[in-house]
Amino acid sequence: MPSMGSWLIFLACLTAAILAIPAASHTGVETTFSIACSSAAFAGMAMSQLLATRIRPVEYMFGGLDRVYAAHRKLGISIFVLILAHYFVTPNFKGLALTSQLNKLAGDVGEFAFYTLITLMAISLVGRIPKTRVELPYQVWRFTHRFMGLAFVLVAIHLNFIKRPFDSTAMLAVYLNLCAAVGVASYVYTQVLAPLRRRAYQVAGVTAVDGATLVMATPTGRAVKAKPGQFAFLKAQKKGLREPHPFTIARIGDDGSVGFAIKPLGDFTSKLREELKPGDRLTIEGGYGHFNYARGSDKQVWLAGGIGITPFLAMSAAMTSSEEKLIHLVYCVKEAGEAIGTDTLSDTAARVPGFSWSLHASSQGRLDAQKLVDQLPFDAKGAELWFCGPAPLRAAIQSGLKKIGSPPSKVEFERFEFR
User: Fold this and answer.
1) pLDDT tens digits, one per residue of 306-324
2) What is the DSSP letter of 377?
3) Is 94 strand, coil or helix?
4) Which of 49, 118, 160, 227 measures 20 to 30 Å from 273, CA to CA?
5) Buried-exposed string 312-349: b where 16+ CB fall within 10 A, e elsewhere
C-alpha cells in the first residue's frame, strides 16, 4: 500500500500537469502535453531534492528512510520518462519572453540541463553496465548524484526564461516557482546544513570473525540519537573509506557508544576489515529507519539471515524483564561457526520470559516455512514476521507460510537498497 509520502509526491506532480492544461491548451494538444510533462517532471525533481534531505518529517511520512530511497528511485525513473517525453514532443508556439537574449540563453541552458540530467539519471538508475558484469562503484554513483541539485537549478532557469504560452501570474508559473523554492532550499540544506547532523566517533575496537567485521566506536563529542533496530551512515577518516555507507547498528551503549557487524561484501567493507584500527576517527550519522519491534503485535517471529542479525541484536539487548511480547528469533547462517552475538541472545532469553531463539545452519538443510514453524514455542498463526536478510529467503518463507496455512499477520522488513 502506498505511503502518505508517495501519495503527496504523486499529487505534487499531478497538480503541475493539471495546471498546464489551462495555461497551454490554446497552443494545441502536442504542446500542452509537452508542457504538462515538463511541469510534472520539474515538480518531481523538486520532490526528489526534498527526499534527499533525509529530514525526519519526510522519513516518517514514508515509514522509514529505506522507503524514502525506494520512492526516490521510482520517482527518478518517472522523471526520466517525463523529460524524454518533453524533449521528443517539442513545444511549438509563439510564446512570451522577457528578451530574445534571455530566451536564447534559457534555451541553451535547457539543452545543457537535459543532457546533464539524462547522463546523471542513467548513472543513478543503472547499477551495472548493460550486458556486462561491470558494476558502477558506489563512490562514482554518489559523486555524480551531488550534481543533481545544480542540474535542477539550471532547469529552473530554463523554465522561467524560455518562451512559454503563459505569463508569470498564471497558476502554473506560481506553482512551478514554489516547487523551485522547495527544490533549491532542499539542495542548499543537503550541502550546508545536513553535515551538521554528523557526529565524531573514535574506533574502540575492531574484531574480524567469520563472515563479519565487528566495529565498536565511542563518541568524542555529541553522540548519535539512535534506537534499537535503526541504521546509520558510517565513514572513516582514511583513504578509501571516506564515502559514507549505511550499516545497521548492532549495539547501542548507554554512553553513546555504538557497535556494527559489517559483512565484507565489496571494496569499502573489505578495506574497512583490513585497514580500520582502534583509534581511527569515524563520522557517523543516524539513526534512521523504523524497524522497531515495539510498534508490532504481541506475538512476533523474528527471522535473521546471516548479517541480518544486527538489528535483532540491538533490539534484544534493549529488552527488559518486563517485556510482555512473545517473541522467537530464528537465526539462519550457513555454518554454526558464523553466528555472532549469541551471548547477547542467550542473555536476553535468560532474563526476558517472552523471548527465545534458535540457530539454524543451512549446511544441515535449507530453512523452509515448516522448519521455521517447528522451532516456534507458540502457534505461528496470527504472528507477525520481522525479517532482515536476503530477499529470496524472505520471499520463500513468506510464500511457504501461506502454503502451510500459517500466513503472517504482517511482514516487516527494510528495503536496504540505496541506489
Assistant:
1) 999 999 999 999 999 999 9
2) S
3) coil
4) 227
5) bbbbbbbbeeebebbbbbbbbbeeeeebbbeebbeebb
CB-hemisphere CA count at 13 Å for 337? 2
Is-contact 232 257, C-beta < 8 A? Answer: no
Q: Is 120 helix (H, G, I), strand (E, B) or coil?
A: helix
Percent of the residues in the chain that have a pLDDT greater than 70, as a whole number: 85
73: left (phi over 0), alpha (psi -120 to 50) or beta: alpha
Instruction: Tell me the CB-side half-sphere exposure of residue 78, using CA atoms within 13 A.
Output: 21
Whether the Cβ atoms of residue 329 and residue 367 lie closer than 8 Å to each other? no
Decide if 379 contacts 405 (C-beta within 8 A): no
What are the cell numbers at 412?
Answer: 516487516
CA dist., res. 320 & res. 217, Å (int): 24
- Contact (Cβ atoms closer than 8 angstroms) between residue 312 and residue 304: yes
* Residues 8-35: tens digit of each pLDDT: 999 999 999 999 998 888 888 888 999 9
pLDDT digit string, tens, across residues 182-241 = 999 999 998 888 888 899 999 999 999 888 999 999 999 999 999 999 999 999 989 889
Residue 128 CB neighbours (<10 A): 10
- Please state the separation of Cα 366 from the chain's center in Å: 30
CA atoms of 251 and 347, how far apart (whole Å): 14
Q: Residue 300, class by beta-carbon neighbours within 10 Å (0-12 exposed, 13-18 middle, 19+ buried)?
A: buried
* C-alpha 393: how far from chain center: 21
> Are the C-beta atoms of 359 and 336 separated by less than 8 Å?
yes
As given in the structure block, the three cell numbers for residue 184 are: 533549491
pTM: 0.79
Tell me the longest C-alpha to C-alpha distance in the chain: 78
CA 51 to chain centre: 10
Q: For residue 90, give Cα distances in angstroms to 25, 80, 87, 244, 350.
A: 15, 16, 6, 41, 70
Cis peptide before 341 (omega within 30 of 0): no
**CB environment 192-230: b (16+ within 10 A), e (fewer):** eebeeebbebebeebeeeebbbbbbbbbeeebbebbbbb
Rounded Cα distance, 400 and 367, in Å: 11
Distance of alpha carbon 173 from alpha carbon 307, whole angstroms: 50
- Residue 262 has φ and ψ, to the nearest 5°, of -115, 120
